[in-house]
Each structure stands twice: as C-alpha cells, then as structure tokens.
Amino acid sequence: MGEKVTLRVWRGDAGQGELVDFQVEANEGEVILDVLHRLQATQAGDLAVRWNCKAGKCGSCSMEINGQPRLACMTRMSVFEPGQPVTLTPLRTFPVIRDLVTDVSFNYVKARQIPSFTPDPAVGLGEFRMQQVDVQRSQEFRKCIECFLCQNVCHVIRDHADNERAFAGPRFLMRVAELEMHPADEADRRDIAQDDFGLGLCNITKCCTEVCPENIKITDNALIPMKERVAGRKYDPLVWLGSKIGRRPRPAGTAAVPGTRGDSGSAGEQQG
Amino acid sequence: MTDDIERLSYDVVVVGAGGSGLRAAIEARLAGKRTAVISKSLFGKAHTVMAEGGCAAAMGNMNPRDNWQVHFRDTMRGGKFLNNWRMAELHAKEAPDRVWELEAWGALFDRTKDGKISQRNFGGHEYPRLAHVGDRTGLEMIRTLQQKVVALQQEDAAEHGDPEAMIKVFAETTITRLVKDGAGRIAGAFGYFRDSGRLVLFEAPAVILATGGIGKTFKVTSNSWEYTGDGHALALLAGAKLMNMEFVQFHPTHMVWPLSVRGLLVTESVRGDGGVLRNSEGKRFMFGYVPDVFRDQHAETEEEADRWYDDPDHNRRPPELLPRDEVARAINAEAKAGRGSPHGGVFLDIASRLPADEILRRLPSMYHQFKELADVDITKEPMEVGPAQHYVMGGVEVEPDTGAASVPGLFAAGEVSGGMHGSNRLGGNSLSDLLVFGRRAGMGAVQYLAGLTDRPAVSAAEITAAQGEVVAPLERQGGENPYAVHTELQQTMSDLVGIIRREDEIKTALAELEKLRARAANVSAEGGKGYNPGWHLALDLRNIMVIAECVAQAALTRQESRGGHTRDDFPAMSSQWRKVNLICSLDGDQVGLTQQPMAPIREDLLALFDRAELAKYLTDEELPAAVAAEEKH
Asked: Judging by beta carbons within 10 Å of its beta carbon (0-12, 13-18, 19+), is residue B565 exposed, middle or buried?
C-alpha cells in the first residue's frame, strides 16, 4: 500500500477560496491526477478538476503544481520531495470557475479571430501535393494539445490583463505561424499578426516553450520566424512607401481579422 | 417549476463533439440548418484526440492495387462477417473522399515521396492504408474539424453579424434525456451545463447521437471519463434499439505498468512499423495463434514475416498484424500460461527492429509516454503491454445510408452506432467511420427535416420528470457514494464479462448488476450544482448501469465465440449465430433482448470473395450457387 501525501488544494469559486490540506494515499508510479481522483472518491466528491484523457493527449488537466504550470496527468508523484506538501492551484491567468477549474474561453475567442486556412480553391479533392520536408514545420505546431499552459504563463497577459484584447498569446501566434508555413495556404497574415495579434509584445523570454508539454519550440520555431517575416515585410521600402501614400487597403492576399473593419464582408464580431 | 430552465431552439442538436459529432454538425450547417453541438468536455478535447495510428481509406497511395473492394473485404473479415455489409460498403467507398476533404480543410498528414498522403500498415489491412500524422492522427483530425467549425463561424459572422448564428458549440454540457412529442417523434434534448449546473432544454426536431463508447463500464480501459455510454442509454430510454452489445473490443497493447497507467494505449502502429510481440522466453508467440480463417494470408516463419515489410507482394504478413481480437486473446493466453512479462503482460519490441531516430520520428508520443510515465526508453528496451477495453462494436441500430434510428428524428454516428464493424473493428476503421457516417447522419437529419410539416412540441410532463431526475442525487441525503458504486461495477464487468466469458460468470455478473442497480438509484452527491464531478458521476451511473446490463445479457445469449466476444464454454464460431443480430431494448426499466435475423449479403458483394473463404463463415444455404470454375480453387 502507498504512503500518505499532503495535497494542499485551492478550493473555492469565482468569489473567493482558500488552500485546504488533505492527506491522501499515493502509490508507486502514480501521477497527480491519480491522487486527485482518490481524493474525490474518498474525501471530496465535489472537488472540481477538469480532465479527460489522462494520457497527455487532450490538454484538459492544466493547473499550477507548486506554482509551476503543468498537466496533472503527466506529473509523477516521484518528482516531489517526500514529506513535503504538494500545492495545487488553478491557472492564474484565467478566471476561476471552481476549485482547480478555470474559464479558458478567452482562448476560444482568440482562435476565432485568426483567418482560417485559405487554399487555392481550384485544387480538387486528393490533388494536393506537398513534400514531407515542407509540411514538417507546421506539423510541429499542430502537435499542440491546447492545454493553454503557454497562454497561462506568458507574462504579457499573466501580469497585464489589459493586454488581453491586443495579444493573442503564444498558442495563437503559433497558429498564425502554422498557417503562414502551411505549404497550401495562400493568405498573408503578417500584417495582422503584428497589428491585431500583438506579435510585437512578445519579447521572447521563452516561458511558453519551457512549459509546453509537447516540447514544441514555440519561441524558436514559430514566434521568432514570424517576427522575421513581419520585419521583412514592414521594412520593405515599397511597402513602407505605400503605407505613407494615404489610407489604402492592404494589398491583395493580406488577410483581415474576421468580423473587424478590415474584413469588408463583415458586420462585426464582438471581441474578447 | 420549469422557469429556471434555459430554453434554446435549433434545427439539429448533435450530442458529442468528437470526430463524428463535428463532421455531422458541419454537414448540417453546410445545408443551412441551425446546429448546436453539445460536448461534455471543452471544444477539441473529445476522445477522438486519443486515436493514434491513423484513418483507413483505400486511396492506393502506397500500393495502387488497393481499392474499396479490398478495403470492404478486409473489414468484413475483421468483423468475421457479422458487419452490416451496407455500412461496410459505404465506408470503404467513401473514406478516401472524407480524408481528402480534411486535407482541403487544412489537415497536414505525413507525405509520400511524390507528395501524396502517406499510408501505413495496420492489423487486418491487406495494403498500407492508414493516413496518419506520426502517432497522433486523432488529434490532427479533431483539430481540423474544430478549425473547420471555426471557419464556418467566421463566414457566419460576416453574413449574420454573429459567429454563433448558425453553429454553436456548447462546451461542458451534458444531455440526460431525449424528449419526444405526443406522436413519439424527437422534440429535443434536456440536460445541464456542467460549470454552473443550470438546466437547459434544447428544442429541436432532429438529434444526432455521437457520444462514443462505453469504456467506463470496465475497470481497465483506454477510454476517457466521458465514455459512460450516454448515447447508448439515451437511445434506449427514448425507445430506440441497440444491437450486438456483446462485442467489446479489447485492444491487445496497452501499458501495464506502473499500475496508474494501466490501460494507456500503445498504438498498433508499433506493430505496423515492425514491432514484434515476445513472451518471457523471448519467443515470437503469435506464430502459434493464427486461426484457420486467416492461415492463408499469414507467414509461418519469422524470415518470411520479416521479408514482408519490404516485399509484401511476394511474402505473407507477420502474425503480429492479425486483427485485434486474435492478438488480444493470444496475449491473454500467454500471460495465463505463465509466459508473460513481470507485470502480467508480454513484451512488445521495437528497439531491436528499427534505428532509434526512426522510432522517434514514427512513434514520438509512444516514446514520450513510456519515458515520462514508466522510465522506459523504447528505443533501447521492450515495452510491457497487455489488453484493455478499447472500443464497443455494438451500438444504436441505424439505417446504413442515413444513420436514422427507429425513433423518428433520432440519428447516430460513430462508436455509438452499431453494425459497421461486425464483431471486431479493424484498427484505423474508426476514424474513417466517424467521417463517413458523421457526414451521412448530418445529411440524414437534414433530409428528415425537409419531410417534416410541423415542429414537434416538447411535452411539459417530460421536462418536469427530466428535471426531477437530474436534481435527485443532490437532494437525496445519506445515500451511497457514487464513486464507490461505479468502482464496484467496473470490477464486476472486468472480472466476469471481460475478454474471456463463461455462462456461470455472466450469470453471477447479472445478479451483481441487479444489486448494483438498486444501489446506483440511491446514491447521493455532496456539494452544490457548480462544477461538481460527484454529482455528474451520480447521473452518469444510470447510463453505465443499463449498458452493462445490455452487454452482459447479450454476452450470455450468444453461444459462440466471434471477434470481441469469446465464450470459454462455446469456443467455436458458428455460422448459425452469424446470421443473428442481438437487439436490446428497454421495457420500463427492464432490458429486453431479442434475436433478429440479418439481411442476406448482397450478391455482388458476396462475389468479391472466394466461395472457399465464404464457406468458413456462412451456412451452406447462404453460399452462392457453386460455379464449376470456382469449385476448382
């Protein structure tokens, strides 16, 4: 039989809450989520924990474990100092719903602002031809399980909630990069990456990369290359000249954020 | 009393937001129907993300000889001819277009040298057939469908000023009852928002069930908590029928150690890419477990099996790539005979078969999973693996072309529907099933709406009853802990109606289930309505209970062994039983079971097989008239 560990769990709702200590059994090889399940089954049936696959594939059980943003299903008990309590708190950047569960709807709003995949409409079913070497870059970003740990840890929004409107966060800047590097995509999202999604606010501290459970090199492979692409465009002399000659629409092929003024067909989508 | 229920109105309500649910919803929205998608989880987290190996479609990118007929044959063989042949036909014919469609929506599958979608080998598939992205194909699929929904919402924002005008995802929402009108037609779906516990009624003339499977009926399962048989139970409670619930797939390879990860899936791609199974004596034991029906297609020596990977046209397949039911039974038998691995499984070895960098490229999540959770480096040492519950072949009886259940306005697609996979599903045929029949159920619902002259009205009495049922566990004082009842039920099913079954054990299980049912009806949940997992489980128990009973009753009735149903006391496959579908329905709160003859297989489909092969499965009367030329081979 396993030993008892002390879980110090934040309990409460949107209004207020506090850390509560529980003594729970833990067995060899178990992860935090196993121990939380035992806690639910034996002592706190109503403890709110969001989880799903318990295999590190769905990104639901994100929380802060001893202050570190992690997946509860992939954090083994053996990494903790024996005898020391393990503190479990909800993601700090997002509003708490209850106990360890937060309202992550911010991320779904941001996802909807990024212009979708835009292939050449003339390509028929089964006619796409792409080389492995060309799809590989975007494939790395598509490993993302949307655990939102990078969104949670990024100081641009973690410490400055007023940036939430102007900043899409690492996950969605990476989505922009993924589409930009997609061999069959034809839209140009460089302007809006900078102007609407706040790419410039990222100062490459790599916190997002450090917490990514999929080990995606978010900063090196997505954000920095995007910054380079944007810079290449912004400082192109012709583009600069064009921007000085009065208000003119963005060049053809430049995507607009759906539901904004730049999107001519739109009646306006509410933001944030 | 019903004032505190939120009422929403839609044309189509899709219950479930995995592959089939999203594909169905996209189809309904493309046809201009206002569509709600209900998800127990957040958007994009459904169980589909856990599919690893790939999506089977006879595109013929690796071997031009592949086509729908070959895929159809493999599917029927895999299901031991119990499949609904029309579904197997539609699936084989339409899967390639559905995969290509994903590509047009932005999916990035691994590529061949000439830039097409790469396809990998898998158990039971004659040619390399699975479109894949490393070993995370399900994630790619669900993300692509999720992003297609978002793309449609962007179009709707432009047209209607509201991204959710035509298709809206209700995340963390559970449906507890389907409601009907006086004429017995579907009128809506009742449930609650998981975060607030607020009650909600979706009024809609068409409901598509896409809720997946029943894994949480068993103790060791690769399925997530969502798999509580909700759609199966909702269908039964609404008066629809379930078919062939005895067929439960125990996928052969899951982690067995540490205990906490027991049941975590180890993809079949490991074997598709060259991995072999060995017992404690180091022997590749699968050579001893090739059944008669598959003997012709499988290698008899390790040398031939190994040559097959490079030269499949002149060698026969390795026995490690037999359908899942065969491999699971073999592993079970080896472990029982004392030739297992230290923790009760067997060894799966890829380390000695592929270079380390190749393993990392092809199986990145397997590497990650073993490294992080078990301290095992799969590029250096073998994995310990064993079978766990993975999939249910049984499900809602539907019309093959439209996904329509017997209740007007009710549709089902994906794992919750029955028939397509017969007695055993081939790996890779699930993701393609979701796409093919998700789309068809969406079309079926749209077609049904076109034929309606009035909108079915919800009866107030049904709403009141549904409301009472939902709040009962919170109001009941001093009842039993729902977690305890659930754990006992899982133990009972795993012990007594698991991978190998016997009459006396199933009877014991049924007696236990009777007692558990009474206890399940009397559980109480502590706490309030806000995000309360104990309360949610208390409500899910009703579904798990009734499904467990269906599985046990059907398992008791079918006196033969076939696919995902193995009877120790009836070890042979019977051509008489092949013609029989077992149908479950509810009479009051009692599960009733009837035997229903299967429609004869259409002649042109039968003609795709040798008569000699058909004779292994069909009765003499069912066999096509013997043609002299055919008799010779």
From this structure: buried
Quick one: residue B344, left, alpha or beta (phi over 0 = left, psi -120 to 50 = alpha)? left
From the candidates B29, B91, B262, B271, which is the catalytic residue? B271
* C-alpha to C-alpha distance for B378 and B463, rounded to whole angstroms: 54
Which residue in B254, B280, B252 sits closest to B370, CA to CA? B254
A45 touches chain B (CB under 8 A): yes
Structure tokens of B542? 């009703």
- At B102 the pLDDT is 98
User: How far is it, in rounded angstroms, from Cα B286 to Cα B265?
Assistant: 20
Measured from the Cβ of residue B129, the count of other Cβ atoms closer than 10 Å reads: 31
Predicted pLDDT at A257: 78
Span B170-206, pLDDT tens digits:
999 999 999 999 999 999 999 999 999 999 999 999 9
Q: What average pLDDT does the segment A64-86 reach?
A: 95
Torsion of CA B141, B145, B146, B148, to 10 degrees: 140
Residues of B in contact with A257 (CB under 8 A): none
With H, G, I as helix, E, B as strand and everything else as coil, classify residue B486. helix
Give the bridge partners for B166, in sequence order: none
* DSSP label of A235: T
B240 contacts: CB under 8 Å, gap ≥ 6: B396, B397, B405, B406, B407, B410, B412, B585
Angle at A263 (CA atoms; ends A257, A269), nearest 5 degrees: 65
A2 contacts A85 by C-beta, under 8 angstroms = no
Cross-strand partners of B391: B249
| Dihedrals phi, psi of B594, to nearest 5 degrees | -130, 160
Q: Where are the beta strands (DSSP E) in A35-112?
A: 62-65, 68-71, 86-89, 96-98, 101-102
Q: Residue B374: closest CA among chain A residues belongs to which residue?
A: A29
**Helix, coil or strand: residue B53:** coil
CA–CA distance, A69 with A47 (Å, rounded to integer): 19
Helix %, strand %, coil % of chain B (to 5): 40, 20, 40
Spell out the alpha helix ranges (H) of A82-212.
105-111, 132-142, 149-153, 155-158, 170-181, 190-195, 207-211
Cβ atoms of B516 and B542 closer than 8 Å: no
Indicate yes or no: CB of B42 within 8 angstroms of CB of A104: yes
| Active site (annotated) includes residue B578 | no
Active site residue B368: no
Touching check for A55 and chain B: CB below 8 Å? yes
Strands A62-65 and A68-71, by their bridges, are antiparallel
B67 lies within 8 A of chain A by CB: no
Give DSSP secondary structure letters for B304-366. HHHHHTT-TTTSPBPGGGS-HHHHHHHHHHHHHTT-S-TTSSEEEE-TTTS-HHHHHHH-HHH
| Orientation angle between helical segments A170-181 and A224-234, nearest 10 degrees | 70
For residue A119, say if its preceding peptide bond is cis, omega within 30 degrees of 0. no
With residue B587 as reference, give the H or E element that holds it.
Answer: strand B580-587
The CA distance from A170 to the nearest CA of chain B, in Å, is: 17
Interhelix angle B68-78/B85-104, rounded to 10 degrees, is 120
The answer to whether B166 contacts chain A (CB < 8 Å) is no
Q: How far is B518 from chain A (nearest CA, A)?
A: 20
Question: Is the minimum CB–CB distance between A266 and chain B shorter than 8 Å?
Answer: yes
Q: Report yes or no for ipTM above 0.90.
A: yes
CB atoms within 10 A of CB B262: 19
Name residues of chain B where pLDDT drops below 50: 1-2, 628-633
* Pairwise CA distance, residues A70 & A154, whole Å: 14
> Could you tell me the two tokens for B253?
């390879």
